[in-house]
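Incident log, entry 3
Record: Elongator complex protein 4 (206 residues)
Problem: checksum mismatch between cached and fresh output.
Input:
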Amino acid sequence: NMNSAYARLLQSIQRIIYQEGFDGSNPQKKQKNILRIGIQNLGSMLWGDDICSSDTPKDIHSLTKFLYVLRGLLRKSLSACIITVPAHLIQNKAIMERVTNLSDMVVGLESFIGSERETNPLYKDYHGLVHVHQIPRLNSLICDVSDTKDLAFRLKRKLFTIERLHLPPDLSDTVSRTSKQDLAESAKLLSSGCGAMAIGKKHLDF
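Fresh output:
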């Protein structure tokens, strides 16, 4: 069995797909290319699910059943769906692994609020990091993993932008005196060594 809220949501999505002609069987009422579906906080108490509040939820497979059926609907229609999941609240890691396996693309957002990076001047132009856990790969049994590891996001008034994380060079005056002394001593050693080589041998072969 499936959660009643998930079942009603699937019925609503299926009805829109068929009535609006996104399944290809009927002509579209309006000239549209693709049906875009957005679902927020899937798996939370808002949907009557208890996977975020218990280590041993009553119906541990309800969310994965919903995603499995939804994936079949999307494959057979001109539809795409983006889902947000409160992963930091889901205590059972096995559930998150199943959710990842049933998804084409998985992206995680790490906010700087409440962390040390919030006050770090190196990250002052950004509001958080973007972690790409999985990207889609067509005609393959294994999902590809992105090589891009340095993505960050920033929030503007009406925009959510994702860009490569470019950290400026550390030009601050926080270098300790001991490190400066070490650099000075190493410079003296290098200069004295070069002077000794020059005195011992005037003609150098290159």
